[in-house]
Amino acid sequence: MSGTPRTRLRRGREKARGRREALLDVLAAGFVCHLGVVVEGVVMVVPTVYGYDPDTLYLHGSVASRSLAGPPDEVCVTVTVLDGVVLARSVFEHSVNYRSAMIYGRPGDVTDDTEKLAALRLITEHVAPGQWDYARQPNRRELAATRLWALSLGEASVKVRSGGPDDADSADARDGRWAGELPVLTGFGTPVPDPALPVGTPVPRHVADLPGTWPGRG
Amino acid sequence: MSGTPRTRLRRGREKARGRREALLDVLAAGFVCHLGVVVEGVVMVVPTVYGYDPDTLYLHGSVASRSLAGPPDEVCVTVTVLDGVVLARSVFEHSVNYRSAMIYGRPGDVTDDTEKLAALRLITEHVAPGQWDYARQPNRRELAATRLWALSLGEASVKVRSGGPDDADSADARDGRWAGELPVLTGFGTPVPDPALPVGTPVPRHVADLPGTWPGRG
After folding, report:
1. Touching check for A210 and chain B: CB below 8 Å?
2. Fold for domain B7-186+198-215?
3. Which residues in chain B have their CB less than 8 angstroms from residue A207's CB?
4. Distance of CA B1 to the CA centre of its chain
5. Which residues pair with A87 in a beta bridge?
6. pLDDT tens for residues A121-164?
7. ipTM exceeding 0.95?
8. How far is it, in rounded angstroms, from Cα B63 to Cα B49?
9. Is A135's CB within 8 Å of B177's CB?
């Protein structure tokens, strides 16, 4: 983001545990990722859903496979969570509060059926918690038609900016302008039933109970 | 996104006007973009704020200039607006409703001071409407320290998925499961004043009046 990140987590063995926790925090709070890949010499940035476990990010390979025969050599996957807008006294000091993770590596195809099911479950539960057990799970044909990529979380960086504006000590602070942070909240609205549903089909509990708003999922 | 986009706007002269309107709709609804760039052979995807007019996207060059001496040859900038989660009867048919724009091109440095001010105003007003006139505007030194890129909107594509799940006609529809769309809403929370502010500094009207939630800005 523009502006100076107040906190930047840098590489270093001594910070490995904190880094991993920060990375998993971003992956938990994020919803979609942006996959950067070079196809025939052209950079493409494609939004897609994801799932993860502590070591691996899983992506739907179908997203990019329209353009790619197999997994690409190297990708960068970025997950960004928007937490707020920083309103400073001066335009120059305006900024954005956010958490962002960049993961670099060479994705591999997930080919084993058991691993594919596990990866698809992680993706489904990240996007729509509770749906894996509620919806009909993939059959053999569907699983065969699903391409999944696995990307190690081993090479990743996290950047975070939080807090208020940085110009409280500047001459601008004497001018009486309001300054602070405007939090950004995201949440689920009222579920919209498929018009084809039989009248009276109940909204399942796990859907009805999803939070109306929560901070920083964008 | 995974799944089949229900609507895809393809290139073609006859659709140019509709495409441009769809592109501007995504840019208006989005908040941050993801800039894809190749730096020394490595793909990077960097989140950043943006502004735009009907012909041009403006970016803070500072974002990537830590890694780049000048504007890169070619970039892809993607703006994604999340509108909802599509809950189908089967896991396989789950999807995401979204609007996404991908803009390709070679960004140029904005060097003229008048153009820089105009571009910075577009970026500021996109992220924090009303702040350009409220906050102190950039002075000569700040403007010189601000690097801005301009990217033509001439080469862009838009993808949209909307509506409910696609398995209303499938055998799965007989199993009685609920299916539909879960809208995603984003909005601003209560403004958090900078702790350094004098007590009683009023929240300006343009900040207090920002919408609490609005559809599909994520």
Report:
1. yes
2. Pnp Oxidase; Chain A (2.30.110)
3. 87, 178, 182
4. 16
5. A180
6. 999 999 999 999 999 999 999 999 999 999 999 999 999 999 99
7. no
8. 9
9. yes
